């Protein structure tokens, strides 16, 4: 669980404080002054690896010039045994610290010790987090939005796990409600058209028009023949929806498995209704005074719940009054519960019944207006939805080929399905590209770039760095040179800027994982891997390994192999393979 960047920063503070206390004891600086200094990492390494503002921060309280304070502190710094081999005064009084060989050696040793778990932390404190993602309607094939949501959710769950959370991956199957009714109607219409011809039976205007519906109807016909020709509506609705789901859900599981996504649970919406959990949840809201009846329907007083939520969050009454807040139907006049009622029940199930500390959902940006309403409803149940429900809203995917948008699938004439995309590009490319930007930014997925085998393709560039190192290690092994243990490396031989920059980048992974977990944004990992690969390629081109003096060869070989391990580690987090040959 090492973080040597943070450890070095803390050591700067401790060394500076100790030197100040000595200066105060010597009577050079006033005693008892509490200085709130910052420790930053300068952009230009010529200005040191860490810079303390101690002298400027303490100048006013000490009634002294910052450079005089800096001089007194610098003269009393005891760097022996620390991560630093020297410190200098710069500008108005910055104390610039320069890392020594101990720090560089410790980075390699820590990564060796932690292996593929390098970068893990305990900041999540074992809190239970459910990440729910994709949750596509099982009425048709998964599309590009589902493809992006899949890799975002899967990678985020991996990142949270590494950050010390106990994570659970879940797919919510909407196998009840209006869309399933429409699904069955669509299959029935195509089934009847098989029997009577397309002109002999009307297709519902709001039905699902894809070829997949025709395939389901054909499959149903082949299984049952004409026996449903005169079946009552209640029977064909139930049986055709069940048949369609029995075919589609395994297809979804298969497509997602091909995409390297496996869930801890596929949760059925129908179970919430059949168990009475939706009705019970609505009754709980009613018991807490959050519902009212109008026109035969039961309504949730969403506007009042939202008003209280926004006031708690710091909005003024005047700001809240300007919002166009509306209430929501929970139970229609016909007695059927709405999708919103089921959604509240599902999230109550997550937070209350199953006891997850946090529920994280990956949703399309078109669900923006639903977020605060659901959080407020959970607040109304006493479940603190405003803090325990986190929704990552995901922008659209723009599929490009030959520099132009691709909107249609050759197979169905509809939006391109995930399985169509994976026929065109590798799973690795799809996962890397869909996770290449923050969820709040649209992704331009360039099909031509995704299949290129050169440095312009980011996933190829990162994987090539890994394969290049594997080849190097194998080649040197044939010559009798094996990767040494970190304890046998003389870190003092790392003298070039390329070597030091590469080791500093290796040390960044714990911070990157922290930021990815904090921001619920796994694209931090992609950007890190691209930077690390770039630093490695620069190191490899500038620093010879074969033919160098034994100590240099050994140290550089260990550095290269450590990069290999960290690239494999990062790629694993985002579900991309680390090939040994390319």
From TrEMBL:
Keywords: Aminoacyl-tRNA synthetase, ATP-binding, Cytoplasm, Ligase, Nucleotide-binding, Protein biosynthesis
Molecular function in Gene Ontology: arginine-tRNA ligase activity; ATP binding
Example GO BP: arginyl-tRNA aminoacylation
InterPro entries assigned: aa-tRNA-synth_I_CS, Arg-tRNA-ligase, Arg-tRNA-synth_N, Arg-tRNA-synth_N_sf, ArgRS_core, DALR_anticod-bd, Rossmann-like_a/b/a_fold, tRNAsynth_Ia_anticodon-bd
GO cellular component labels: cytoplasm
Domain of life: Bacteria
Residues annotated as domain DALR anticodon binding: 462-582
Every Arginyl tRNA synthetase N-terminal domain range: 6-99
Location relative to the cell: Cytoplasm
Ranges in coiled-coil conformation: none
EC number(s) per entry: 6.1.1.19
Primary localisation category: cytoplasm
Reactions catalysed according to its record: tRNA(Arg) + L-arginine + ATP = L-arginyl-tRNA(Arg) + AMP + diphosphate
Motif ('HIGH' region): 136-146
Subunit (UniProt): Monomer.
UniProt similarity note: Belongs to the class-I aminoacyl-tRNA synthetase family.
Name of the featured protein: Arginine--tRNA ligase
Organism: Candidatus Flavonifractor intestinipullorum
Lineage: Bacteria, Bacillati, Bacillota, Clostridia, Eubacteriales
